[in-house]
Amino acid sequence: MSVFTALLSRDLKLALRQSADSLTVIAFFAIATVLFPFGVGPEAEVLSRIAAGVVWVAALLAALLSLDRVFTVDFEDGTLDQLLLNGQSMTLVVLAKVIAHWLTTGVPLIIMSPVLAVTLQLPAEGYGTLVLALLLGTPTVSLVGALGAALVLGARRGGVLLSLLVLPLYIPVLIFGTAAVEAALTGMPSAPMLSILGGFALIAVTLCPFGTAAALRQAAE
Amino acid sequence: MHKFANPTQFMRIANAIYPWVAGICVLLFAAAIPIALMFSPPDYQQGETVRIMYIHVSSAWLMMMIYGIIAANSAMFLIWRHPMANLVARASAPMGAVFCALALITGMLWGQPMWGTFWVWDARLTSTLILFFLYIGYIALADAFEDSERGDKAAAILALVGSVNVPIIHFSVEWWNTLHQPSIIKASKEGVDSSVHSSILLPLFLMMGAFTMFYFALLVLRLRSELLAAKIRNARLSQIAGHSAAQPAE
Amino acid sequence: MAFENFAAFIDMGGYAAWVWTAYGLATVALVGMLVVSRRTLKARTREFEEMKANRK
């Protein structure tokens, strides 16, 4: 457990010191979202129709950008090998890394999302559900993303490859994340979609760390 | 099961059944093509376009079966380190991708006359498209490493991840589709699935059988290539090792 | 026989473009896979034989 907390606090400290990384991701999130009004026109009607979807897609892409640094540094400087040699439980290591990633990118994205939703004219009923949906969906994004990042460690064209692997797996989260907000806007209960998002997170948290650990083990071999 | 892990043993059996598989494949195609194109009656709703269905469904069946084979073999490779299982998975993946593309394209060619548009976000077309991306990702990941063994293992893990995700994606897309179902294009593709007529089943099963045998026959050919490639690679490696140690490789 | 004459067969009830394109593409895909696989096998076999010959 001590390794878990040590890794987590080290990653968080590192992220704090290099806060430019997290800021870049947020900036990307903002710019990607802001592009849409230029693409579809500034009519409030159109924008508020697509607001939730745009915020979700932009958040997924922004999270994707941050994924390649989850393991790369530890892989290149040998920390990963050392953790493996010390007989550390890789699953715990992975969990620490995923939580660090979620805290340093997932949470900022969630905080930023209502602001961006305002620019897209999201109706007032949608904000609570949007934040809740992101809160329940982004852990899955980090968990699945870490798995992808571990798989492409040391690969040629790793970044592009990562998006090819991970984005299709994000589709269920995107579907239910957007549907939850849409339900809230039309006055339907959004709880079923939110609980499905929670269910995805539970499935991901039970399965992904093992896969990620296996991927890290074979990468370090 | 484990005795098939030995490549020599495996290939002995595979080569023995190869002529039979290839022969049955040719016979099935010889029966399926004329029946599918000429002798089976047109569908009462879809007319002659139902003939596209025979190759569309056959391709879709193979793209799913091949994904199952890849996933099962990836599991065997990761758990027992069977080298043959890995080769089966890797040799199958490009064929799976081709059948997936074929299912997509024939689906579009069927959709245009039936729905009036090449593409609708129909649950099955959408799931097929996502499966196609998974295939492309698998192939790209398997080839992305200098060290081919890393590619083998990473791709095997990805195949297993995919096998957990494919049902989830399918369920999500289906749910999403019913949510957004546009009322205009609730057209007659369904007719085939709900009221299956025996005149349709015969060519369909023949075609599916022919496609399946085609896959297995080609798999044997591709496994031979993969094994030769592995032998060549090993020989090169031992040659390099031999040179650097200034000793003969043997 | 579902068609009265050869012209009707080619016409496919007015859906000739769709049906024949689909079957044509399927043929191209299957034959293409067969050709590529056989060619790779031949190339690999040749490479392997050459390698064995060089060693001796």
What's the topology here?
The complex is a heterotrimer of chains A (about 220), B (about 250) and C (about 55).
Chain A: H1 2-17, H2 19-40, H3 44-67, H4 72-76, H5 79-85, H6 90-119, H7 126-151, H8 158-185, H9 191-220
Chain B: H1 7-39, H2 50-80, H3 83-115, H4 123-142, H5 148-180, H6 189-194, H7 198-244
Helix pairs in contact in B: 1-7, 2-3, 2-5, 2-7, 3-4, 3-7, 4-5
Chain C: H1 6-11, H2 16-55
What is shown here, in short?
The complex is a heterotrimer of chains A (221), B (250) and C (56). Chain A is mainly alpha-helical and 221 residues long.
The average pLDDT value of chain B, as a whole number, equals: 85
Measured distance between first and last alpha carbons of chain A: 24 Å
Uncertain segments of chain B are 183-194, 246-250
Q: Which two chains have the most extensive interface, and how many residues on each?
A: B-C, 37 and 30 residues
Oligomer: heterotrimer
> Which structural class should the secondary elements of chain B be placed in?
mainly alpha
The total count of strands of chain A amounts to 0
Name the beta content range of chain A: under 5%
Helix segment tally of chain A: 9
- Count of helices of chain B? 7
Rounded mean pLDDT of chain A is 91
Provide the helix percentage of chain A. Answer: over 70%
Q: How would you sum up the major sheet of chain B? A: none
Identify the overall geometry of chain B: globular
Report the helical percentage of chain B: over 70%
Structural commentary:
The complex is a heterotrimer of chains A (221), B (250) and C (56). Chain A has 221 residues and is mainly alpha-helical. In chain A, 85% of the residues lie in helices and 0% in strands. Chain A has nine helices and no strands. In chain A, helix 2 crosses helix 6, helix 3 packs antiparallel against helix 6 and helix 6 crosses helix 9. Chain B is an all-alpha fold and 250 residues long. Chain B has one domain (17-181, 196-244). Helices cover 81% and strands 0% of the residues of chain B. The two termini of chain B are 33 Å apart. Mean pLDDT of chain B is 85; it is low at 183-194 and 246-250. Chain C is mainly α. Chain C is rod-shaped and about 65 Å long. The A-B interface holds A 147, 151-152, 154-158, 161, 164-165, 167-169, 171-172, 175-176, 179, 200, 203, 207, 211, 214-215, 218-219, 221 and B 78, 130, 133-134, 136-137, 140-141, 144-146, 150, 153-154, 157-158, 160-162, 164-165, 168-169, 171-173, 175-176, 179.
